[in-house]
Description:
about 700 residues, alpha+beta, 5 domains, six-stranded antiparallel β-barrel, about 50% helix, MFP, transmembrane, membrane
Amino acid sequence: MDAAALPLLREELAVYPGPVGRDGAPSWTLHDPLSNRFFRIGWPAFEILSRWHLGEPAAIRTAIETDTVLEVDEDDILGVAEFLARSQLLKADSPGAVDRLLSIHQSGKSSWLTWLLHHYLFFRVPLVRPDAWLGRTLPWVRWLGSRGFRLATLLALLVGLLLIGRQWQSFTATFVDHFSITGLAAFGIALGLAKICHELGHAYTAKAFGCRVPTMGVAFLVLWPMLYTDVNEAWKLNARRQRLLVGGAGILAELTIAAWASLAWGLLPDGTARSMAFTLAATTWISSLAINLSPFMRFDGYFLAMDTLDQPNLHPRSFALARWHLRETLFGLGEPMPEHLPPRTHLGMIVFAWGVWLYRLILFLGIAVLVYHFFIKLVGIILFMVEIGWFVVKPVWAEIREWKKRLPAIRAGRRVRWPLAVLLGGLLLLVVPWNGKVTAPALLKAQEYSLIYVPFGAVLREVTVKDGDRVEAGAVLARLDNPDAEHRRQQLDSRVAALRYELSATGMDSDFRARSQSIAEELRTAQAERAALANEQDRLELLAPMDGIVTDSSPLVQPGQWINQREPLLGLRQGGVLEAYVAEEDVPRLRVGASAYFIPDGRDAGIDATITAIDRVAVTALTEPSLAVPYGGTIPARFDHNNLVPDVAVYRLRLKPVDDRVVPPVPLRGQVRMDGDYRSPLGHGLRAIAAVLLREWGL
Length: 699
């Protein structure tokens, strides 16, 4: 820029006194009414602009040094001129100035694809110009900012919270009951009303302080609608308290609604009115505290943080410091610091920048997943890639390009070795197939289980085993007595003896001879009854039906008691078996015979096992409910016709403990780690992406 003559300032620019900085230095606010932009300038820049009419840097410098205690040089004045030119605050009264404006305009133009991406990710639709209407209606709502109403709202808040605390179970139950189509619709309507009040809070507060409110409308962030109000003129306010009130008026409006709605919920009887009060209270509490107060996005919390901390442009300044700190930590380039701040503020800005980046990474990944699921699949994939590319890949790539510009200095430095080693190690971790373990939820249970009942009512003589004893098939478990059966046996023995005597005396007694056939038939019947009774008495010895371990002995049964045939005496468990449910992507990595290690929940010691069978068809319903999320497990599942249907494709595996003696008394839930084919994280990610693409394209 020519140092001999300075270009003219635009005549419509206005300068307002700004807040005093933490160091006591004054500031001013420069307003461009055409673009409705505001610029914070310091004392030297204000003195330079105040003498801009002198037209020459030398004259301005002389006047400043004569009239003030400041010392400036011509480079400072030219720097202000560069700032004015970049911000388009100068008159275009020469061919060179016109060419400069045209070049700025051309640099701001973008391709149709870039324009589409910008307007898909964020755009605004102004709906109304409310300034005049706000001025006419402001007297009607001014009482909302009175001291009396504020105290009444605070009292309503305290009483409402007290009533909610006393009825907390009812409040939380109502919250759960609202998770339905009708409840979600009510939440949507309440949220819309709360947001209208939120924006009116900003608008009326700004208007009360004399600011102009040019537009109100709807902004779309990734096609998600959000109301907005243009209160940029709040930057004209000199008092920080006034700016804080304008920035926090929306949150205060929502909290006011929440306070009175909470009080109404606590006082009203059950019915429609109480349900509406609950919906308003829950919606405004969540919207105000969880969303609007966050300083990580450019919502109210961000602007409140800037005014509270007196740190204008908090995001770009903290980002610049964090990027500088990262480069210095990695490469030690010795570049000048973007700005000098007190040590605690400097560290706080860097930590804040990393917090914003982490928050936005999680948020944008979540938005990308939602976009993928809620749009037509092909469109969803494209929009997902746009989200990741624009919000995640682009900033990383921009920083890598900055590193490329500094490549000679980076190579010349000694500190480059360990960042390269870390980078190479990270790449190796991504590329080298080092992960050979597959983890899956599993349940350890008995392979066979049998309850032992007495065959009929009898007296328990003795139990020959106890819980934990290992027995073989045919071993005696318990002995019983049946006094009635013993009495019947004695009677039958006497009857058989008498019939045999009668049959042997047929040659000596004509009566016995006449009844010989009848006597023989009665003898056979008595002998059959005695044999059946003997078999029945043999059953008074309870034998193990299989090899197993004794368990579930009844502590209420003692020798000498009568035992009911419907009451189990004890149980037998045979062998242990593991059932695991593996994700579809991990099934090809597993083989029958592979080793595994099962760790029950809440225990440190595990159990060695071996894979014995792998299903090749995904399960359609879980046979073990304890592994499903509704019952405390890890497999996402839902109820469908009284069946637990997995929300993801899982395959069942069966495993056998290496130690045959491992037989759990009750089923044990846990995690099983199995030896599988090795794979790299990068290959796993690429296969997952390819699987999604193939599935959504129907290939």
